[in-house]
Every structure is written in C-alpha cells, then in structure tokens.
Amino acid sequence: MGLATGTRGTNVVYFQNTETKLVALTIDDAPSRSASEFSQLLDVLKELDIRVTFQIISHYVSSDEHRELLKRAVLAGHQMTNHSTIDQPCINLSKEEFRQRLQDCQALLDELTPGARRWFRPPSGTMNGTMREVLLEDGYDVCMGDCYSSDPQIDDVDYHCRTLSRGARGGSVIIMHCPESNHRHQTLELIPKLVRDLVGRGLNFATLDELFPVQPDLVRGAL
Questions:
Q1: Mind giving me the DSSP string for 198-213?
Q2: In this structure, are residues 197 and 70 in contact, taking their beta carbons and an 8 Å threshold?
Q3: Residues 46, 154, 23, 34, CA torsion sign
Q4: 219 inside domain
Q5: Cβ atoms within 10 A of the Cβ of 53, count?
C-alpha cells in the first residue's frame, strides 16, 4: 500500500533509524507570507544557536525582502528544501504538472544553494505513486517526519511542546510551520521551549543533510 500511495520507498524517510543524539527541526511553508514574522523566526534561531531545515514554498518569496531573508538564512547555516510552488496537495496533478511545480521551486533553491542535495516534502504530507516516480527520476530524497502536533489547527504552545517533546528521540524529524501575521505566531514561543527541553535531554539539533549523511535505510510502518 505504501508504495502505491508514494509514502514509502527507498527515497522516503521518516526518521533516522540508527543510534544518534541528533534531531532535525523542520519548518514548513517558509519563508512565510509575512517577512516580518520570518525575520523574527531567524532572530529566535540565532539566539538559540541552532540550525534548522526550511521547506520552501516558492510563491511565498514575493518581495526583495523575502529573498534577502532567505539569503540570511542560508548564511546562518539553515538548509533549504523543496515544498512546491504553492501550499496545495499535488496528488491530483499529472506527472508533467507535478514536475513543473517541482522544477519551479527548485529554480529558486538552486539560486540560493547551488549544488545542494535535493530534498522534497509534499504539501499537506500527501503523496502518490506518480509523485514518487518523478522524485526518483529527478534525484530527490523525500522527508516526511515522526513528530508532528498539528500546529496549524491548534493554538496552544504548552500542548505542542509536550506532544513534540514526548515523541522526540535521537533520529527524530520534527515538523512545525512558519508563523504568519494572522496565525501560527505561537511558533516563535514554541521553538525556544522545545529546544531547551530537548537539549536538556542531551539531544542536539541538525539539518536533514546532517541527520541523513548517506542514503538511509527505509523506515517502514505508519507515521
């Protein structure tokens, strides 16, 4: 079933299934439609001295300020990955339509981080066999995640911190979302609390490239 839906395969990972003290904090829908919120997020990460992986929606890069903030993020050591052009599931697209969205977003990433390893996270976490076929053909690794607390739907910092902290262990991929001007502002408060908790447990933060330095073994089973 997993291969048919696209959610399992040799290029799809959920967590690092080896002994490690590293965790990856991945932040979807970057750089946020609000440049101000994204700037504040970069300030928070700088103060915490951690590197994260941003999943980029290329149509959100709608101003020179957005582009400059992404350059700032790259200089700070954060990783940029492909999250398509718009925040919309791709499962109803043809092979050609999906590839076009993938390539349009990748063109921006290639400007920012030329030669970087290619990662993709499907919008809304939904994939099908057509998408995975294109991703295999075009040399992408796909990162899902094993720690998620539905932050777009729930406005409760303490709840998210407890849920993510209980689920996280060495090798985990944590998923949360960029703050926006009208919702998800809690991310700016959540990240410091979660980071301090996990660091206190002896875990360290890494980018996807650092957590998965080589082709990982497939982690099977439901998310």
A1: HHHTT-EEE-HHHH-S
A2: no
A3: negative
A4: no
A5: 26
Of 61, 55, 106, nearest to 78 by C-alpha is 55
Query: What DSSP character marks residue 216?
Result: P
The verdict on residue 131 lying in a domain is: yes
- The count of domains in the chain is 1
List, for the chain, all residue ranges whose pLDDT scores fall below the cut of 70.
1-6, 214-223
Closest CA to 111 of 52, 67, 60: 67
> pLDDT (tens digit, 9 = 90+) per residue, 78-125?
999 999 999 999 999 999 999 999 999 999 999 999 999 999 999 999
> Whole-angstrom Cα distance, residue 10 to residue 217?
7
* C-alpha closest to that of 24 among 220, 208, 217: 208
- CB within 8 Å of 34: residues ≥ 6 apart: 179, 180, 181
Q: Note whether residue 56 is domain-resident.
A: yes
Does residue 216 lie within any of the structural domains?
Answer: no
Measured distance CA(201)–CA(21) in Å, rounded: 10
Residues 74, 177, 211, 47, Cα dihedral to 10°: 60
